[in-house]
């Protein structure tokens, strides 16, 4: 950032002077907390009432990535405020004032009425004036509206040379409508002036307190269990870390977990697996002919347990075609 601004000396001191760097890191961390508070306050303005249909969490994520600028990125918010009906505008101002005076304990946001007395006074006066205009309009049986309201737009029909032309025009506004329009204009101007927050990335040393790497979260919230299970069964040593599970590249070691051995044999079969053939192949690997071979009965127990685990993981199921066969449900890599 310093280089982009042309301040090479500042950037050089950050690289060469550790004490200077540490001082600025502490300052930036303090500024980061202020930035978070400012961002939450801005979002409370935007999310109040019916000003936006987006969820607060989505607004927060967008604001972190893109910042908040009601003159640019969030221009739709301003248009929504302009077109508010009196009841919607009153509801919006009421919620804004509640946020300023009470804060939001769910966000850890304290009241900022004492810090922004002018803003609180402005919203209070605007709300009182709108309520007064609304009450007077209701007494007169008049529907209060602004020049931006859709109700202020009327269609005019003009017949020229036996052709009907439709055009949109603005209905005449009463004095109270003009006063309400003036309040809306002042409100919009106030919001445009005060609602701004830069992107998190624009702050120096934001990498220290902002973690936005998606890969670890993606692995948790959008996991790939099948790939992990296949790797664990194909290369159990990667997870167990024991020497007995390394095995050779040309043959399977009898010390591998039973489920891993059965999975390797499973990969060599077709869509239907003969359980007797699978047992014969398994016992040939772990049976008594090996130095540390198992007797038939313990081997059979482990064999059935391994098959049950493969079934629980969704690799096999009983076959309806042949009672002594199991059906293969998954192919590696597919």
Automatic annotation (TrEMBL):
Endpoints of the signal sequence: none
PANTHER family, per database record: ORIGIN RECOGNITION COMPLEX SUBUNIT 3 (PTHR12748)
GO molecular function: DNA replication origin binding
The organism's place on the tree of life at top rank: Eukaryota
Domain Origin recognition complex subunit 3 winged helix C-terminal stretches: 226-331
Native organism: Diatrype stigma
Any one biological process term the GO annotation gives: DNA replication initiation
CC terms in the record's Gene Ontology section: DNA replication preinitiation complex; nuclear origin of replication recognition complex; nuclear pre-replicative complex
Record CDD domains: Orc3
Annotated protein name in UniProt: Origin recognition complex subunit 3
Pfam families documented for this protein: WHD_ORC (PF18137)
């Amino acid at each position: 950032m310093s280089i982009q601004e042309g301040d090479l000396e500042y950037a050089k001191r950050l690289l060469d002077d550790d004490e200077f760097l540490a001082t600025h890191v502490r300052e930036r961390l303090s500024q980061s907390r202020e930035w978070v508070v400012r961002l939450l306050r801005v979002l409370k303005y935007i999310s109040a009432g019916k000003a936006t249909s987006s969820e607060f969490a989505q607004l927060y994520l967008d604001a972190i990535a893109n910042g908040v600028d009601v003159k640019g990125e969030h221009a739709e918010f301003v248009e929504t405020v302009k077109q508010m009906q009196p009841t919607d505008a009153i509801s919006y101002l009421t919620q804004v004032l509640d946020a300023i005076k009470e804060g939001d304990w769910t966000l850890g946001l304290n009241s900022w009425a004492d810090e922004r007395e002018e803003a609180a006074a402005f919203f209070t006066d605007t709300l009182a004036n709108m309520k007064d205009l609304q009450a007077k309009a209701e007494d007169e049986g008049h529907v209060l509206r602004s020049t931006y309201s859709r109700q202020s737009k009327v269609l005019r029909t003009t017949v020229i040379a036996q052709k009907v032309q439709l055009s949109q025009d603005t209905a005449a506004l009463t004095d109270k409508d003009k006063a309400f329009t003036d309040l809306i204009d002042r409100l919009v101007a106030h919001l445009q002036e005060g609602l701004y927050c830069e992107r998190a990335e624009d702050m120096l040393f934001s990498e220290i307190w902002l973690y936005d790497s998606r890969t670890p979260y993606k692995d948790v919230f959008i996991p790939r269990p099948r790939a992990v299970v296949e790797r664990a069964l194909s290369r159990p040593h990667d997870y167990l870390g024991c020497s007995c599970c390394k095995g050779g590249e040309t043959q399977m070691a009898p010390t591998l977990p039973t489920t891993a051995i059965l999975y390797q044999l499973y990969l060599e079969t077709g869509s239907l697996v003969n359980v007797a053939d699978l047992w014969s192949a398994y016992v040939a690997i772990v049976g008594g002919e090996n130095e540390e071979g198992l007797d038939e009965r313990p081997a059979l127990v482990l064999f059935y347990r391994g098959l049950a685990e493969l079934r629980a993981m969704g690799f096999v199921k009983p076959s309806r075609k042949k009672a002594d066969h199991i059906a293969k449900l998954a192919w590696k890599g597919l």
